[in-house]
Amino acid sequence: MTQLSAAQNAQSAQHQSSDGSKALYGGKSNRRITVRDIALAKDRGEKWPMLTAYDAMTASVFDEAGIPVILVGDSAGNCHLGYETTVPVTLDEMTMLSAAVVRGTQRALVVGDLPFGSYQEGPVQALRSATRLVKEAGVGAVKLEGGERSHEQIRLLVESGIPVMAHIGLTPQSVNAMGYRVQGRGEEAAQQLLRDAKAVQDAGAFAVVLELVPAELAAEVTRVLQIPTVGIGAGPETDAQVLVWTDMLGLTSGRMPKFVKQYARLREVMGDAVKEFAQDVVGGTFPSEEHSVH
Ligand code: KIV
């Protein structure tokens, strides 16, 4: 496994896309990305982007833009379904949203999140829940939270032919127990995070999300693992980066976590457009002749 510098990474990504090869972002293929493509990207030292999506139309925009991996996160709870946390999200809801995202995409690997309560009982419950996401929604992989504590679930899913993305560090389904705090600070917590990372890799996970952990620790995990790390609030050294789409495009209201970079202000754009429409209706200028039939 070769470790490349940031400059070498950028160069290699450019090279891969300009010769039309297999780069996850910028490469050309008219088939779905698979977990094997993800493994090969780590071997090449290639970085890649991942976004969440919760509906077909938004997912199709990301797919057309070349995002190689789309996560139907249970962040749908806060960002799509109007819950305060991810905890109330159900497997029925995740199945419906995941199916929509699969229908809206052609190239991206779609990863469906297993919601709270759908896998904590043990491997058999996890297999039953993951099977629904694969068979009914058509996802190519599932994600679940937990390191050492979830390794038996991961092992059975992988043995059963279901690729698993693990998720360690801050695990929002445990908000009632851990809050939304940085994880892995201090020697003992850092060692636990390393043990969690190795446990999910040994159990067969094809990638692992590192949420809200110190950048230096995320870099170390990325160095010691053979599987790719996907950072969110985990600094620049992870193999991939994920953001919640409503945060990165500025649709979410209120204060953003420090790790979110907003690339657009959709809330303002949409609000302004809606007000213009309302004023046109109230003022009688919409519909005009142009938008009328006779
Ligand atoms: O549910 C989600 O969107 C997630 C990402 C933040 C990784 O788990």
UniProtKB/TrEMBL annotation:
<keyword id="KW-0566">Pantothenate biosynthesis</keyword>
<dbReference type="InterPro" id="IPR040442">
    <property type="entry name" value="Pyrv_kinase-like_dom_sf"/>
</dbReference>
<dbReference type="GO" id="GO:0032259">
    <property type="term" value="P:methylation"/>
</dbReference>
<keyword id="KW-0808">Transferase</keyword>
<dbReference type="GO" id="GO:0008168">
    <property type="term" value="F:methyltransferase activity"/>
</dbReference>
<feature type="region of interest" description="Disordered">
    <location>
        <begin position="1"/>
        <end position="26"/>
    </location>
</feature>
<dbReference type="InterPro" id="IPR003700">
    <property type="entry name" value="Pantoate_hydroxy_MeTrfase"/>
</dbReference>
<dbReference type="GO" id="GO:0003864">
    <property type="term" value="F:3-methyl-2-oxobutanoate hydroxymethyltransferase activity"/>
</dbReference>
<feature type="binding site">
    <location>
        <position position="143"/>
    </location>
    <ligand>
        <name>3-methyl-2-oxobutanoate</name>
    </ligand>
</feature>
<feature type="active site" description="Proton acceptor">
    <location>
        <position position="211"/>
    </location>
</feature>
<comment type="similarity">
    <text>Belongs to the PanB family.</text>
</comment>
<feature type="binding site">
    <location>
        <position position="113"/>
    </location>
    <ligand>
        <name>3-methyl-2-oxobutanoate</name>
    </ligand>
</feature>
<dbReference type="GO" id="GO:0005737">
    <property type="term" value="C:cytoplasm"/>
</dbReference>
<feature type="binding site">
    <location>
        <begin position="74"/>
        <end position="75"/>
    </location>
    <ligand>
        <name>3-methyl-2-oxobutanoate</name>
    </ligand>
</feature>
<feature type="binding site">
    <location>
        <position position="113"/>
    </location>
    <ligand>
        <name>Mg(2+)</name>
    </ligand>
</feature>
<feature type="binding site">
    <location>
        <position position="74"/>
    </location>
    <ligand>
        <name>Mg(2+)</name>
    </ligand>
</feature>
<dbReference type="Pfam" id="PF02548">
    <property type="entry name" value="Pantoate_transf"/>
</dbReference>
<protein>
    <recommendedName>
        <fullName>3-methyl-2-oxobutanoate hydroxymethyltransferase</fullName>
        <ecNumber>2.1.2.11</ecNumber>
    </recommendedName>
</protein>
<comment type="function">
    <text>Catalyzes the reversible reaction in which hydroxymethyl group from 5,10-methylenetetrahydrofolate is transferred onto alpha-ketoisovalerate to form ketopantoate.</text>
</comment>
<dbReference type="GO" id="GO:0000287">
    <property type="term" value="F:magnesium ion binding"/>
</dbReference>
<keyword id="KW-0489">Methyltransferase</keyword>
<dbReference type="InterPro" id="IPR015813">
    <property type="entry name" value="Pyrv/PenolPyrv_kinase-like_dom"/>
</dbReference>
<feature type="compositionally biased region" description="Low complexity">
    <location>
        <begin position="1"/>
        <end position="18"/>
    </location>
</feature>
<comment type="pathway">
    <text>Cofactor biosynthesis; (R)-pantothenate biosynthesis; (R)-pantoate from 3-methyl-2-oxobutanoate: step 1/2.</text>
</comment>
<feature type="binding site">
    <location>
        <position position="145"/>
    </location>
    <ligand>
        <name>Mg(2+)</name>
    </ligand>
</feature>
<keyword id="KW-0963">Cytoplasm</keyword>
<keyword id="KW-0460">Magnesium</keyword>
<dbReference type="GO" id="GO:0015940">
    <property type="term" value="P:pantothenate biosynthetic process"/>
</dbReference>
<comment type="subunit">
    <text>Homodecamer; pentamer of dimers.</text>
</comment>
<keyword id="KW-0479">Metal-binding</keyword>
